[in-house]
Amino acid sequence: MMSGSWMKALVLVVATASLVAGCGAPGSRQQMGTGIGAAAGGMTGGLLARRNPVAGAVVGAVAGGLIGSAIGRALDQEERRQLALASELAAEQPVVPKVPPKKVQWKRTDPQTNTVTASGWVVPKTDPYQRDGTTCREVTQNVSKNGQTQSQDVTLCRTQVAQADGSNWVIPQ
Question: Domains of the chain: which residue ranges?
Answer without folding.
Answer: 4-74, 81-170
